[in-house]
Amino acid sequence: MRLHPWLRPGVVGIVVGVPAAILLAACSSSSSTSSIATPTTSASAASTTTTAATTANFNSCSVVTQAEAASAIGQSVTPGVLGNATVEGGLACVFYGPSAPTPTTPNVAQADTVRVVVVKGSDALTWYNDYKSKVSAQPITGYGDQAYYDGYASLSVLKGDYYLRVAVSPAGAPPSLSDEKQLSTAILPKL
Fold this sequence. Notes:
Elements: H1 9-27, E1 48-49, H2 66-73, E2 81-84, E3 91-96, E4 113-120, H3 123-134, E5 138-140, E6 146-149, E7 155-159, E8 162-169, H4 177-187
Antiparallel strand pairs: 1-2, 2-3, 3-4, 4-8, 5-6, 6-7, 7-8
């Protein structure tokens, strides 16, 4: 039996091995800074794990650490996962506690999570005011240039050209404004 030239063992090894080597090289880094993965669009890969990053790769996960999120919710959490932030525009960084429902999806608010969204730039004020107009905003002082609690789920802060929204939702309990304030205090100096 004669094999097609592409199916010979030596050629198959090269065809498979070269792309695999390229992928491995692309995934590794000799840099001492962490990198941020971008969200995926595949339904089967609904999220991407991230870590704190340099400001060159700014996104919502680059301003909050896993330890800060765990401290805010009072339990261990997964590494941050990027998802769409439909209320604020941009990307949300979501940390899941051990009792988070499955499947997890960073595109939807869920129990036992810490959700952080930062919108940077000229759209920050627009998104901040847009959400404020849709909720029973309760002014909060001492955070950024202005801040409000939405009355049930999150703390929104405007600082310069940044809009920060934090939601800490422990399992079996309502969102915690005091925990959201704690986490905002840790994040605001980074903006």
